[in-house]
Design brief:
Bound molecules: zinc ion
Number of domains: 2
Radius of gyration: 20 Å
Number of helices: 10
Oligomer: single chain
């Protein structure tokens, strides 16, 4: 592996880049704005500009790119929620041709998961799960030290495992997916639908304190509510989210026989503030193992995880 690696994290609004050393430490960062009209050419131009900003002299032979969407095992982007023009394109090959370098493309949640095994929360752990709790619920599984992709690249869509048969409608169209209960978008829907005093207090925190819906809900549950009734309502909603997340995580532990679960993403701090409750919720659904055998850990690489994991994949392709 060369001295420095570079990884890119392509999201709906921006491309982030990180130059990473052999110990997975980020030595330089960059960011370029993108949009829904992103094409392979404009994405290559953004990546090229970031390379110009961050790399002196010779460009790396291999680049890693994490992207939201389903990345097929051949490097084709089978589906992209944020960038429709990229859907169905052989994105790894197109970027490689445009940039004149080897390009490894992987799903962004998989990149974030892979990063945690490299001087991260799951360093030295062969089998683990990373769940990214943000607007949606992303996840990636590492088995025997390698990313588990499945037959087509769709493996471990934990956000779309069913935790409540016939339950809430998910963005994917199915009913009762975990993402419809344990994500920022889900909390927003659930709180707005209530249309009561809890809704009013959450909305006021969201606009005045610049908090997310989940963060505001948890703050109200922890004693910031104006009265005991609102506090109780907030506690019940927070408990329900944790209960559903616990069922989903325990199911993944049961399926993959893993004992390390890493929680990442923007609403991870709120969820981890109720770690005991989360573990209790998991305990009720675990098969053949006590909850004490399962470690639930915060992400180490945080917002850099996607870029760091992409850089790790680039390094391994050399
Ligand atoms: Zn779903």
């Amino acid at each position: 592996m060369s001295q420095s690696l570079i990884g890119f994290d392509v999201g709906g609004q921006s491309v982030k880049a990180a130059v990473v050393n052999e110990s997975a430490e980020v030595t330089a960062r960059g960011r370029r704005v993108t949009g829904a009209d992103t094409t392979a050419e404009s994405l290559a131009a953004s990546i090229g500009a970031l390379l110009d900003d961050l790399v002196d002299g010779v460009r790396p032979e291999s680049l890693g790119v994490g992207i939201a969407g389903v990345v097929g095992t051949t490097g084709n982007l089978e589906g992209s929620p944020n960038m429709p023009a990229l859907t169905g394109r052989p994105i790894a090959k197109e970027l490689s041709d445009l940039l004149g370098a080897r390009v490894v493309v992987e799903n962004d949640a998989n990149c974030a998961a892979y990063a945690e095994g490299w001087f991260g929360a799951a360093d030295g752990v062969a089998d683990y799960l990373v769940v990214t709790l943000g607007t949606g619920l992303g996840s990636g599984v590492v088995i025997a030290g390698g990313l588990y992709r499945g037959s087509t690249g769709y493996a471990c869509e934990l956000g779309h495992s069913i935790v409540h048969a016939g339950g809430r409608r998910c963005g994917c169209g199915n009913l009762g997916c975990l993402e419809a209960y344990a994500s920022e978008a889900a909390m927003r829907t659930i709180i707005v639908e209530r249309d009561d005093d809890l809704t009013a207090e959450v909305l006021s925190r969201v606009s005045d304190e610049d908090e997310g819906y989940t963060q505001a809900l948890y703050a109200l549950a922890e004693g910031s509510a104006s009265n005991a009734t609102v506090a109780r309502m907030a506690q019940r909603e927070a408990e329900e989210m944790i209960r559903m997340l616990g069922i989903g995580l325990a199911s993944a532990v049961n399926v993959f026989d893993i004992e390390t679960v890493v929680i990442a993403g923007g609403i991870a701090p709120a969820v981890l503030s109720r770690l005991d409750d989360l573990k209790s919720a998991m305990a009720t659904s675990l098969f053949a193992r006590p909850i004490d055998a399962v470690r639930v850990l915060p992400s180490v690489h945080g917002n850099d995880a996607g870029s760091i994991g992409a850089a790790r994949l680039a390094g391994e392709s050399l």
